[in-house]
Design a protein that fits this description.
11 helices, VC0802-like, binds magnesium ion, Carbamate kinase, alpha/beta, 20 strands, 34% helix, binds adenosine-5'-diphosphate, binds aspartic acid, 410 residues
Amino acid sequence: MGVYEKMSLIVMKFGGTSVKDAERVRNVAGIVTDSYKKDNSVVVVVSAQGDTTDDLIEKAAEITAHPTNREMDMLLASGEQISASLLAMCIQDMGYPAISLTGWQAGFLTSSAHSSARIRNVYPDRIRREIDQKKIVVVCGFQGVSRYDDITTLGRGGSDTSAVAIAAAMHADLCQIYTDVEGVFTADPRKVPNAKKLDEISYDEMLELATLGAQVLNNRSVEMAKKYNIELEVLSSYTKVPGTIVKEKVKMEKMLISGVAKDTDVARLSITCIPDRPGMVFKRFSKLAARNINVDVILQSVGRDGTKDIAFTVAQNKGAEAKEICEKFADTVGAESVDYDDDIAKVSIVGAGMESHAGVAAKMFEALYDKQINIRMISTSEIKVSVIINKDDADRAVSAIHEKFFPTDN
Ligand code: ADP
Ligand code: ASP
Ligand code: MG
């Protein structure tokens, strides 16, 4: 029996800003040891310090324009090793037992899709042994090992997922995601100063918000938390105030919407004058799917003179490849032209409340009209409405929509 079974097992994750320099590392060590002093077992997951991951990507770019994903993973995983070892040293220096572990030492077995690996399993035996010896265990987030013994990383923002995976594998009592804001807000609080902090949010709404651009939590981490029913608390490492609880069912009366999100990682392709006959959509999208390109918002015109136009969006880093596929397709079927535009953004509202209330989309469109912002595409689901607009309009659009749903004088 592990000793931690008598007390609480807490997983705490600290993002890049929270460990960016010696002073912030000391602050984190304080939070961690405060919890340890209360007889809790503590597993800490850390991200790389500050902008380290971006800096490492730049270093690779100085060497080659085409680094292999395997070597990129080898490089990027080093960032988390720096912060984990520094934090462990700092805790030891304060007089408490601590040990840092890499992702693979901590038992993270992943797929071999370098730079966007999926966690296949976590074998936390080593973490358990260290905890049984009363140590605070500091784990490098964002990384694991494939079955070929190669170092992998989980994709940007992946440390959140590392934390949730440990919490699931070890049946932790609490999983706290410490960051540089006080929780999940109705919009990015750095862009919309009057955004409100949510006390609670459901997994489904958080998953949509995260997928639609609210990077406060990585969307895969929310997916995993929902799957294993791990309650998350998103809170600040700077202030000691309660954060936002992410869980299955929220007690609060359903708000109309829970937030506004922006994503600028979007590119739009449009193909004009495609022959109007069966199979055209299938042929084009199956070619994109074969190259692992996800298509998001799709718009097809009613058609005239035996032809139709179609426009759709993809992630920007897939834009050039998608364009090439569309140009070949256009040539083959005799379509007129292919147009590419990545000067666009996707702005979305998310809320379980819109399922039972009419007029939510209209209210969003009115906010855009008030600011004379042109909508280029629209997509909806039960709990979200997204619009594609010009990138230059995106911040204004988020503020206007937020103001419409959460007026300042309320
Ligand atoms: P960390 O390094 O701790 O993982 P991130 O930078 O990944 O932190 O995520 C935190 C940031 O997410 C905040 O600084 C904030 O600017 C941004 N953010 C975007 N949308 C939201 C939102 N709805 N609520 C809170 N923060 C948000
Ligand atoms: N350091 C990685 C990144 O910058 C992982 C993370 O921060 O979660 O994306
Ligand atoms: Mg993050």
